[in-house]
Specification:
Chain lengths: 272, 313
């Protein structure tokens, strides 16, 4: 009894220490956004400060925050929709096909996702330059959707494969078309897989800065690129960056916290 | 007349040879858009990258473009900066992945019991995974800065780090980057391992407890062997990701000081998009790609072997 309680206490305190380790650094940066500038640059660093919104005022003066956020949304939204449209049907067909090539094609999609983003960047950059798409958010959507659709295909392949075939066979005998049995029977059954794939694609596209950095121009750059360019500038303080970082992290952290169940499910089921 | 009669009498007119054909066509039509898309947007640039790597090709000197065969690769193998980048990448990968696995396993074990406290903690612990790598870089710059950073100030004050900060010293910069990676990705490893733990057969664990095995014995004899597929999966994912590390290095140190934290992918980006040396950059990318393919193939074989052992498949 007592050893059990003891080990329980040990477990809990270890978890609390880990929680502090993983959360405090994040909260530290977030907190700089509410500090008056002179407290950010105090030596030694201060833990208490009178909260202020002056950093947010500076951010809105220096950056067109809404345009940055809407570019991010456009890039993330566009690539998520495109990759779901391409990846979900492909994942279904590969899972249900009895062809011996199906598994090979599925593995091909998984292999594509393992390719380092940088490897495709330079030729893709030249390709976009040649067809005149360089500088527009469309170029970023195209390449993100490529990586994401490969990922969605692989993930949905695993989800559909774990779904019993009998459901759709019953629908087919009842006179459903092939597409109907996919759309009305199989797809609703793997809702959680679709949500999980959407979450992963959203996270990837929202957080990506490598492609947008080289492929977009001033008027189409997302918030991640703005953060990077602000980061290297001398006259921008940690407070301003902390405030700007709010807009790039809070949406995605909130979405994942709310849909946390799917996130966990997707990782454990989709990757296997 | 008779023909239409027999076909009308058949219970499922669709279940015929033509149905099998139609089904095949349907599957092909469903897969084709994705395959074509990935081939055009993904595989075509990669193939071009192989082509470029065989040329002396600099965007700033287009007139001097000429075929050099494997020349770029031979240059890279004798180039000390590239060799340094390779060594850094290997040290980074081994260091980060080892700690992530050990720490992630400890966290997964502590979160194993399914209760409200553990579920909430898991959700919160996952936050580093979801935030932008760029912001992760910012966080650690802000914390470790020697003059104004909360941690960096005291480290420098007590002489535990270079007075210019951990990122500024060649001997601590790579270790600091490994630390940042551990912070960002350990939660993901913990999550994968936790899923593996929860899938373990409960009856075997209970039986071993009744037989009086200590916690450590159970861990060594039952849990770890049965968990091998999940452990290998986490190992594969993290190794491949760590090997192609770019984001956090670019944001925090940019490869410096000197070339102390230069990694293969960073080296490729610098060669390609800063010096416009497309041939060289493509060759570095392709070498990295080969390394990743070898690592991935090795691990996937190991996973299948472990799976067969654990599940008897």
């Amino acid at each position: 009894m007592s050893t059990r309680t003891l080990s329980r206490i040990g477990e809990r305190s270890f978890i609390l220490v880990m929680l502090a380790f993983f959360l405090l650094p994040f909260l530290w940066l977030a907190s700089t956004a509410y500090k008056p500038s002179r407290d950010i640059f105090s030596i030694p660093p201060k833990l208490t400060f009178p909260p202020t919104f002056e950093q947010f005022a500076t951010v809105f003066r220096l950056f067109d925050v809404w345009s940055l956020v809407s570019s991010s949304l456009l890039i993330a939204g566009g690539s998520v929709i495109l990759s779901l449209l391409l990846g979900v049907p492909a994942g279904y067909a590969l899972a249900r096909s009895t062809s011996r090539y199906a598994i090979a094609v599925a593995y091909f999609f998984m292999a594509i996702r393992m390719v380092p983003a940088v490897a495709a960047l330079i030729p893709f950059y030249l390709m976009m330059r040649d067809i005149g798409l360089l500088g527009s958010w469309v170029a970023v959507v195209l390449i993100n959707a490529m990586l994401n659709s490969a990922f969605v295909t692989w993930m949905m392949f695993s989800y559909f494969r774990s779904l019993p075939k009998e459901l759709e066979e019953a629908a087919l005998t009842d006179g459903c078309t092939l597409f109907g049995s996919f759309w009305r029977v199989a797809l609703p059954a793997v809702r959680s897989g679709v949500v999980a794939s959407t979450l992963f694609c959203l996270m990837f596209s929202w957080n990506d800065f490598l492609y947008p950095m080289f492929l977009t121009r001033l008027d189409s750059k997302p918030i991640s690129v703005a953060l990077l360019s602000a980061y290297g500038t001398k006259d921008i303080t940690w407070g301003t960056l902390g405030a700007l970082a709010h807009f790039s992290t809070i949406p995605i952290v909130l979405i994942v916290l709310f849909l946390n169940r799917y996130f966990v499910q997707g990782l454990t089921k989709g990757i296997h | 007349m008779t023909l239409s009669l027999t076909s009308a009498l058949r219970p499922f007119p669709a279940l015929s040879v033509s149905y099998v054909e139609r089904r095949r066509l349907f599957f092909i039509l469903m897969t084709l858009p994705a395959v074509i898309y990935v081939l055009v947007i993904g595989v075509w640039p990669l193939a071009q990258g192989i082509w470029f790597s065989l040329y002396e090709y600099n965007l700033l000197k287009p007139a001097r473009t000429h075929f050099v065969g494997l020349g770029n690769y031979i240059d890279l193998l004798s180039d000390t900066v590239t060799r340094g980048a390779f060594v850094n990448t290997v040290i980074f990968t081994v260091g980060a992945v080892t700690v992530e696995l050990l720490l992630g396993f400890a966290i997964a074990l502590a979160l194993w019991r399914d209760d409200r406290f553990n579920r909430i903690c898991l959700a919160l612990i996952l936050i580093p995974v979801t935030i932008t790598p760029l912001v992760v870089g910012l966080i650690f710059r802000a914390l470790l800065l020697a003059d104004y950073g909360l941690v960096g100030y005291y480290l420098a004050e007590f002489g535990l780090s270079d007075p210019r900060g951990l990122f500024a010293n060649p001997s601590s910069a790579l270790a600091t980057l490994i630390f940042v990676d551990i912070w960002e990705w350990t939660p993901l490893v913990a999550l994968i391992l936790l899923a593996g733990l929860k899938a373990l057969p409960g009856d075997i664990l209970e039986a071993s407890e009744v037989d009086g095995a200590t916690a450590l014995q159970r861990l060594r004899i039952i849990v770890i062997p049965l968990m091998l597929p999940s452990i290998l999966l986490a190992l594969t994912l993290r190794t491949i990701d760590a090997f192609r590390i770019f984001d956090s290095v670019y944001v925090t140190t940019g490869g410096g000081p000197g070339n102390a934290t230069n990694t293969l992918m960073l080296h490729a980006v610098k060669q390609g998009l800063e010096f416009f040396n497309i041939g060289r950059a493509s060759a570095i990318s392709n070498l990295t790609l080969i390394c990743i393919a070898v690592i991935a193939a090795g691990f996937i074989l190991l996973i299948r072997k472990a799976d067969r052992k654990a599940n008897g498949r």
